[in-house]
Give the backbone structure.
Amino acid sequence: MLPVLRRGISILGRDSPIIDIGGRRTFLKLGAAMAGGALFGRGAAEAGTSDAFPPQDAPWSQTLGPGIVDRPYGQPSQFVKDVIRRDVPWLTASKESSVSFTPLQDQTGIITANGLFFERYHGGRASVDPQQHRLMIHGLVDRPLLLTMEDIKRFPSVSRIHFIECPANGGMEWRAAQLNSLQFTHGMVSCAEWTGVKLSALLEEVGLKKEAKWALVEGADAAHMDRSLPIEKCLDDCLVVYGQNGEALRPEQGFPLRLIVPGWQGNVNIKWLRRIQIGDQPWFTREETSKYTELMADGRSRGFTWLIYAKSVITFPCPEKPAKGPGIYEIRGFAWSGKGRITHVDVSTDGGVNWERARLQEPVLPKALTRFTHEWRWDGKPALLQSRAVDETGFVQPTIAELRAARGVNGIYNNNSIQTWQVKADGSVFDVQLS
Amino acid sequence: MSSFLDRAAMRLAVIAATASLAAVAWAGETQKPGYYGYGTAPTPAQVVGWAIGVRPDGQGLPPGSGSVSKGADIYADQCAACHGTFGEGEGRYPKLAGGEGTLRAERPEPTVGSYWPFATTLFDYINRAMPFPSPHALPADDVYAITAYVLNINNIVGNDFVADLNSLPKAKMPNRDSFIWNDPRPDTSAKECMKNCADPKKIKIESTAEGKDLTPRTTGPLDEMKPK
């Protein structure tokens, strides 16, 4: 009877003295249930006992939950506190020019939750007022333009699912296995559905002059982050987006406007996009000379290595998600390629001696994260897990030894090597590299 | 005669128009400049204010100039706290000088002097991104002066160098010709072997992250791990 009554009264609103009492009582009871959960619930549950286990009814089954719009903007469960972006504090001099990593070990599908999308700033997270934001397009064009956010949203809109990967993902692993964590070895890749305008439509609207060969794309952040892009790529599949997974871009991803350069290294996907200058030569900005160039063993360097080549990684088991005793495991992971679709992924459990074809999960989209799974019957003996992606161009993901032979170990960027996870007999998992 | 020509021209124009309409229909989206008509034209002053990109040929460099000695003073005031008086770098902030001859070494030190291919990039980057806490606030003369100073501590220009839109593109950077600007990949050619792809006895663990104490924790609150 009582719960029904309370539910009826609660519509009266906050001012009602009756609801205050009811509300507090509800709160107290809930609070007790939660404290129980936190204090002894988990330990007891692990020991195999809990007030919530059958045949008992759980405390949350006997208490009214908070009502609608209790949290007008939804949050993850309070029990999922550990699934957050994390950083490597010793990596960079300042948090404003630094990177945080997506917890791929907990990513269940190809879409990265907006709150978990990896961050990479060169001058901190800009806080841009969309009313005052402008996109300028000028240079070798017939009709230079200054566009408001409203103007941009009036252009024909498209949505596409694409990954973004920082080319420094795995950059700490060139010399040796260093970081014992999937989040830190691979978490500079994320994937989202982006909504906006084709860059080609904007460039048609301004009209490119014959000599137009390059675009300088620039952000409104403190770094005034800028990169040169060849005009062919701009006209091919680049997007100027304001939407991320069905809502406005997050500030971390460049609210209110960013560039998406599908399949190309993260930093060219300029965030807080405010300017596109069309020219006939590249600008050779600091971010394409001092940084994001690859120093080879012979002392020469490669520049403009924008493309992300095929790559994959096993997300379960992994150091954060060890195995627990012999039995059947579904090996899971992600594969991606900047050149198009993943055609298949092979999995090895013996360090690359024998391989088996994994199953790809739909949808398999070009330049997007692709999920793969593979059933593994673990006998409890030490194992070496690997995955190897192949894309629609036939490119096969290389080993770290092959990459080192081609480039040396000083390049930092574009490490798309096969990851090896060592599974010990006790089920624990370690980041290793094989000879 | 002329009317015939006119008519022929008209017919051609009609054909061309139909053809281009067909092209629009095929491509589905190619439009003439100004088709949507959204937005406004930026004023010249608006373009000048935002167009800060500088190219190696000097395009984009503003009027103004600055000497090494003036640059030394401004640098001491605005930059040295992080980058060191002579570009040696304080703490983990980047070094701006030194590292010559290290690019093939075990631990290379790429700096403005040892690595950067273009002096114009230095002006551009200091202007847009430095000083790190309050960027793009220095007048062009000051940016020229600091640029001159940073080139000077790298022995790229002499003490009497004055940086301006003519001199900067000419400053010769030592590592300029070491860059390959065409992506040579794919530079690996792995095959899709499925069975007996390696000798199991030769597979050894060459390195492991186990016990290295470099990995922040991935549960609980953020790790405040001290820099190594």
